[in-house]
């Protein structure tokens, strides 16, 4: 009776209620997964396969999350201080910038229009020390709306800036030059006054009204905000601006907004968006991300190869068991499903454990960084090198699902050959010397 039941279950390939694997097949597969004293070496290989898949999946999730976090943080910080669209004149300077800014700000999807005057200077302190800097002249009311700066005033305030008597500088520049709020910073521009002897540099000192800290060291160490009217005088641009930067609701909708902005301007303008200005940087970041994904996938692939070796050894060790099952009526398909379940179980459990480990590390990524910094006694993820003051991690659901699918697919593929080899075992040959 039992043999007939086994035979019927094996031939149909379906257990009770139409399950893809019968109870008999699941029972035998589970027994093969349990460690026994004489099968200790096989169990060690299965353990390494499990750990390999777990670490491979976890590493992929962590690295991809960190790189996603990098991109999100860099985009938010770069675009937080720079406009998503930069409008520049073609047919003449922007002398009507107050009216033009109002027109562009009224375009649906545009949050703010920021008229700017920019120029490179040499910033120096009275006590000595100097550094190159970028001066950005902006109206006080516009800079207040630029929350990336106005909400990150580390010390001081914008009162002096609003009255036109002070400038805002980055905290890292202040530390580098030894400056504090209330001190004077001297700016030297090569484009100064024209004299009979040629162009003389323009040198002028300004009182520091406040120190801002955006969190991106490149900006905190190189940017100075100056009241627009003062910047126009300093850079010989009285009554005009060089460009108008537009901040939009959704940076990915730039292509749809471009014709609306051109129509609202009512004159010839040149538009450059954030993707064009940072194309090289973000393209390199995307290439690095793809390469890292492919390299780390090899970890999962190696773990899947361990499943193959472990199952082949298991098949060789269980040759007599397979022969007995075949003589009892188990079909070749049933044997194949048994060993497929044995290998697939390692891949499934390893993948689930890897996802849990990866999520746990991503949620506590900053604590992990601080722990390893404490262990090694060095500063990991130096903000002066990596631009950001904290290690970011942002998990993407679709990306995590693709990692899980990839790991499971490799695990399932790895089990096919050993399972097929087990199903092809000849019972007569296996039992000849038993």
TrEMBL record:
<dbReference type="InterPro" id="IPR051447">
    <property type="entry name" value="Lipoprotein-release_system"/>
</dbReference>
<dbReference type="GO" id="GO:0042953">
    <property type="term" value="P:lipoprotein transport"/>
</dbReference>
<feature type="transmembrane region" description="Helical">
    <location>
        <begin position="40"/>
        <end position="67"/>
    </location>
</feature>
<dbReference type="InterPro" id="IPR011925">
    <property type="entry name" value="LolCE_TM"/>
</dbReference>
<feature type="transmembrane region" description="Helical">
    <location>
        <begin position="291"/>
        <end position="315"/>
    </location>
</feature>
<keyword id="KW-0812">Transmembrane</keyword>
<keyword id="KW-0813">Transport</keyword>
<dbReference type="Pfam" id="PF12704">
    <property type="entry name" value="MacB_PCD"/>
</dbReference>
<keyword id="KW-1133">Transmembrane helix</keyword>
<dbReference type="GO" id="GO:0098797">
    <property type="term" value="C:plasma membrane protein complex"/>
</dbReference>
<keyword id="KW-1003">Cell membrane</keyword>
<protein>
    <submittedName>
        <fullName>Multidrug ABC transporter substrate-binding protein</fullName>
    </submittedName>
</protein>
<comment type="similarity">
    <text>Belongs to the ABC-4 integral membrane protein family. LolC/E subfamily.</text>
</comment>
<feature type="transmembrane region" description="Helical">
    <location>
        <begin position="401"/>
        <end position="420"/>
    </location>
</feature>
<feature type="transmembrane region" description="Helical">
    <location>
        <begin position="371"/>
        <end position="389"/>
    </location>
</feature>
<keyword id="KW-0472">Membrane</keyword>
<dbReference type="GO" id="GO:0044874">
    <property type="term" value="P:lipoprotein localization to outer membrane"/>
</dbReference>
<dbReference type="InterPro" id="IPR003838">
    <property type="entry name" value="ABC3_permease_C"/>
</dbReference>
<feature type="transmembrane region" description="Helical">
    <location>
        <begin position="335"/>
        <end position="359"/>
    </location>
</feature>
<dbReference type="InterPro" id="IPR025857">
    <property type="entry name" value="MacB_PCD"/>
</dbReference>
<feature type="domain" description="MacB-like periplasmic core">
    <location>
        <begin position="50"/>
        <end position="263"/>
    </location>
</feature>
<feature type="domain" description="ABC3 transporter permease C-terminal">
    <location>
        <begin position="294"/>
        <end position="427"/>
    </location>
</feature>
<dbReference type="Pfam" id="PF02687">
    <property type="entry name" value="FtsX"/>
</dbReference>
